[in-house]
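Researcher: Next entry in the queue.
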Amino acid sequence: MFAKVLKYEAKETGLLTLVLAIAGGLIIFLSGLAVLAPDGPLAAIRGLSLATGVLIGLALPCGLFFPAAVRYWRTMYGQRGYFTQTLPVGSGVILAAKTLWLMLVTGVSMVLFLGALLWMTTVQTQTEELAMKKGTWTIREGIDKVIGSFHAAWAGFPDFAKWAMIAILIMGIIETVVGMLFASALSNWWPFSAESPGLGFTLAAVVTYAMTQVFGAIVLFVIPGSLSIVSVGEESKLEFVKGFLWHNLVDSAGASGSENYIPLGTLLLPLMSIAMYVFAHYSLTRRLNLR
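Model: Structure for this entry, 291 residues:
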C-alpha cells in the first residue's frame, strides 16, 4: 500500500514538478550561456540574462515545493481529506509515503536552487576573467572555464568537508519537509481552522518557524564543543575544540590559515525533526481515528 500511495502522489504532482524542473533548469542554463557569449549582439543582454537566471533559480524552489505542500495539506486536513480518511491503511503508511514524495520534490528544488546560484555566479566570474585576458572568446571556451572552475573548487575540499556539505543538504531537505508536516498538523489543532484554514496554517507556520529558529540558536551557541576544520595552504584537518562557539570564533580571528567550526549542538537538530514528525503522525492518527 505504501507504493500505491507514493505512486498516486507522483501521479498527481509529478508531471507538474517534472515540467517546471526541466523548463526552469533549461532557462537557467541558457541564461548562463547568454552571459558567457563573447562581445557581440548577446553582450547587450548579458546583465538581463544574469538577472533572469538568478531570479528563476530563486523562484523555482517555491514553484516546485508549494504545489506539493498545498496538496499535502488539502489531502490530509483540507477539502480532500475525506479521500485520505477512506483509505484502508494506517496513518503511518500514509504519512511516510507522502513525506517521501515531499522530500523528493524538495531535494530536486534545492539541488536546482544551489546549482542555479553556482552556475550563474561562476559564469559571471569567468566572463569577467575572460574579458580581462582578451577581447573575444567562444562560448565553448567559456564553458570549459566554468567546468574547470567547478572541478578545481570541488577538488580543493577535503573528503570530510564534501560529506559534511552533503549531510547539510540532506538535513536541510528533512527539516524543510518535517517543518511543513508539523505546521500542517499544528494548524489542525486551532479551534478556528475549520472556518479559516488559511489563517490557521499561516499562524502555525509562523509558530513553527519561530520555534525552530530558537531551538537552532540554543543548540548552536549554548552547547559547548565544536568540530574544527583547519585549512593551512592545501592541507586540512579535523579537530575537536572545547568551549562555546562564539569564544572559538573570537580566538581564531587573526590566526594564520582558515578555520571553520561545526558546533556539536547541530547533532541535536535531528532530534527536533524526529519530535516534529512524531507530532505530525500523532495528529494524523487522531484525525483518522474519527472516521
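Model: Strands lie at 226-232, 235-241, 258-263.
Researcher: Noted, moving on.
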